[in-house]
Amino acid sequence: MSPALAADDDERLSIVADNEDRLSIIIINGGEIYVRSGDAHNFSQDYQLYIKGTDTEGKRIWIELSRNGVLLQDDIVTEGSQFVYSKNSTEIFNLTVDTIYKGADGVLVKFSPVYQYLDTKLPAPQMPAESLENTSNNASSIDPELETQVKGFDMPIFLLGLGTVLLVTGFFAGKGKKK
């Protein structure tokens, strides 16, 4: 199978020419991911991005890129900064730290845009059993647990809680105006 045709279940590959007239195959083209401190995000070709830690203010984070448990690169980054990993002068990852959310349990980091290019020295991602055109129109093939969703975060419960807070706040705000 041609590497240009291979893709993970939810990903499409694109081919672009870089500034040195080489062809690059894009696995992730400007997507976004969320990673919680202490957790990792798994990418195609067995790459993992870990959030190793943060400073006390939650302004700087320590990130680590590895493949099959082998450290490839680590860096301390802030909001707006880029993390770029290249191998043999070929860019493999380019991630921008969009937002760092600090909470009681650590930090949640939003990376956007995220670019992953095919590492031609590694096996290409496998094509799903059905063609991408067939799966994009089939709602039952959508994975209920999206890759970009943080493990342990439940959006319906979050929205229900937010609605409850707004309702209670509105109730007490209305009581104060009647007096």
Topology of helices and strands:
Blueprint: E1 14-17, E2 23-36, E3 40-42, E4 47-54, E5 60-67, E6 70-78, E7 82-87, E8 90-103, E9 106-117, H1 132-136, H2 155-178
Structure description:
- The chain is elongated and about 65 Å long.
- It has helices at residues 132-136, 155-178; strands spanning 14-17, 23-36, 40-42, 47-54, 60-67, 70-78, 82-87, 90-103, 106-117.
- It has 179 residues and is of the alpha+beta class.
- The protein has two helices and nine strands.
- Helices cover 16% and strands 44% of the residues.
Order of secondary-structure elements: EEEEEEEEEHH
So what's the overall shape? elongated
Secondary structure tally: strands:
9
Largest β-sheet summary: 5 strands, antiparallel
Radius of gyration: 20 Å
Strand order, sheet with most strands: 1-2-9-8-7
What portion of the residues fall into strands of 2 or more residues? 35-45%
Distance, first to last CA = 74 Å
Task: Tally the helices.
Answer: 2
How much helix is in the residues? 10-25%
Structural class: alpha+beta
What's the average pLDDT?
A: 75
The parts where pLDDT drops under 50 for at least 5 residues are 1-15, 17-21, 129-146
